[in-house]
Amino acid sequence: QAFFCLLLCVPWGSSCPPSCQCTERAGAKAVLCSSRHLEEIPEDIPRDVVFLKLDANSITRIPGNAFRHLSHLEEIDLSRNAIEKIDGAAFRGVAAGLRSLDLSGNRIRSIPKEALLALKAKLRLANNPWHCECALQEVLWEARLDLDSVQDITCHTAPREEYVGKPLLQVLDAGVNLCGVRQRTTDVAMLVTMFAWFAMVVVYVVCYVRHNREDSCRHGHYLRALPSAPAHAE
What we know:
α3 (134-142) runs antiparallel to α5. Helices cover 32% and strands 13% of the residues. The protein has two domains: 21-176, Alpha-Beta Horseshoe (Leucine-rich repeat, LRR (right-handed beta-alpha superhelix)), CATH 3.80.10.10; 178-210. A hairpin with a 2-residue loop joins β1 and β2 (28-32). With 234 residues, it is an alpha/beta fold.
């Protein structure tokens, strides 16, 4: 934050989004769009920006390729927005060079793991209403999370009630495997489906046999009800 404050003192002259402030210090260009009531990511961000602050706005989603043209980008601050949806290709084009990504304090319940696992940036994901599931577990295991904020990744909803309200790290430390839970749920669903199909087949066979038996009985009664044929004279 102190670095961004210093950047405010040195404006630079290239194109800048009208609702933002653009500064430069020691060759590092920054676009500062904090608290500007933005509802989406500006499209006219200069291509040579290194630091991008979009915090404390009303942005609701990060579409695919949102930053692809910003090849010099190293830090993105999207904290304290209203982000609910992140496209799987949201950070395509900047994954290799990005060093810091702050998504804390949003409304994110789930996120495509491919959106984050390709990043080498340090991630802040705290204070979101997370649904604790396999994809989030894989992110926690494989992504570079900011250690100071890991404890604030809390389960807002979860496959089991006892996980709700607990830090995800605490749940996993207790030996829970959310990917295993998903697999067991899938297996149970498959078993239920197979049992339902088997039951339908059994019911069909029983009904078919019973129907044929009734037809046979009716046919037998009909034959017995026919008058006997007269004997032929010898």
